From TrEMBL:
Top-level taxon in the UniProt lineage: Bacteria
Protein name: Ppx/GppA family phosphatase
Organism: Campylobacter jejuni
Signal peptide segment: none
Domain Ppx/GppA phosphatase N-terminal: 33-159
PANTHER family according to UniProt: EXOPOLYPHOSPHATASE (PTHR30005), RETROGRADE REGULATION PROTEIN 2 (PTHR30005:SF0)
GO BP field: regulation of transcription by RNA polymerase II
Pfam families per record: Ppx-GppA
InterPro entries found in the cross-reference section: ATPase_NBD, GppA/Ppx_hydrolase, Ppx_GppA_N
Amino acid sequence: MLGIDLGSNTLRAVQMDEKLNKLKEYEFVIGAAKNLNQSGEISKEAIQRLKNTLSILAKEQDLSKARAVATAAFRKASNTNEIFAHLKKEFGIDFKLIDAKSEAKISVLGMQSGLRRLKIWGEFAYCDLGGASCELSFGKSFKSFDFGIISFYEKNYHSYYKSCISYKKLIKKYPKFIINIKDKKLKIHFLIANPHLKHLAFRAFDEVAMIKKELRSLGVKTVVLNSGVPTTLSALKQNISYEKYEASRVNGKKLY
């Protein structure tokens, strides 16, 4: 059996036996969410990358028997049906578009399975941060945020502050100055000199504040994070390079 997850940035495929034991896995960057905010469509470049990926998989797998789902970027794109019809005709693959709630449920099941393998027990909230959306689940509560790494960056790419003063000399001379600042946005203002990065940091702060508010209202103490962003952060904290990435050193680690 072959399972395929076509996300807003990456396509992941897993070959399993009849007991759902993992036999082989694949990962390809598609970039489906790239330029989606501007055009409203999956780009021709992303479609071509998707076709190239399926051509590679088709050499090893029978794609007509694959269980394939697609998520946020394809929920938003106006040309999704056209793309899926073409892929079915060319590769025999039948992609199913799943809604945000189904995506969150499937993601939670995957994270819970991983936690059991790691022998980590407890009551957690689950957060799946993708390229075009962020799904948050806790108990029977669920919420989807229109906040993804790619969509967020592109949405804010062209609008940033035009002027900025570097405070490096001030911080170097008075290092405790920053430590004593209680306002987090003010800290961002002083610590980041690049106007583009400063603007992105401010916008990210506002977006994350909404998610934090939701978590506080649910009484959540621990959040399990899924996707490439938190795993990359965990790897960076451990000085693990992309080339030497080891999932066993990342899964189950605490970020903060």
